[in-house]
Specification:
Length: 165
């Protein structure tokens, strides 16, 4: 015997559009995704430094070795690292609408109450990582104590990290 539906077609369609609230991403998934992202950033950082040194050696063949061994290169390298970090997290989260390589691999996503994450919001979230570090990394441990599992940078940028399948 077949089940008979008592709802109208319009009611059935409207019920299908209602989505359940997203499940917050587990802390271990977030850590795993972050470690993958740090590996990608390290590759970007190494590549930019290598290209810089090769170009510098091509332009100034006799002084490139002295520069690489100097404190100036250390300063350049730190600035390059910061640029890669900020650029990677800001641009990938914005362009791929909440995903980074690590988040995609661990099936989690940054989301907001609006439909898409703006470039400004992605940059603010990335810069807010600094505040999470300044609190002796307590900002990163905050998800362990919150039911919604949001970190300090999530609270400041009004974002959530949730499972995505």
């Amino acid at each position: 015997m077949e089940a008979i539906s008592l709802s109208t077609p319009s009611e059935t369609n409207s019920l299908q559009l209602v989505q359940s609230p997203a499940t917050p991403a587990s802390y271990m998934r977030r850590i795993g995704a972050y470690l993958v992202d740090l590996f990608v950033i390290a590759l970007l950082h190494f590549s930019t430094n290598l290209i810089f040194v090769l170009v510098l050696d091509r332009i100034f063949p006799h002084s490139a070795k002295n520069f690489v061994l100097s404190e100036n290169f250390s300063t350049y390298s730190q600035a390059s690292d910061l640029f890669c970090y900020l650029g990677y997290f800001t641009l990938t989260v914005w362009y791929f609408n909440g995903f980074t390589a690590g988040k995609r691999l661990f099936q989690i996503r940054i989301s907001t109450h609006e439909s898409e994450i703006s470039l400004k919001q992605a940059l603010f979230r990335t810069v807010s990582y600094g505040l999470s570090y300044l609190t002796l990394s307590f900002g990163f441990l905050l998800p362990l104590f919150r039911k919604d599992q949001r970190a300090l940078h999530d609270l400041l940028a009004q974002t959530t990290v949730s499972e995505y399948r």
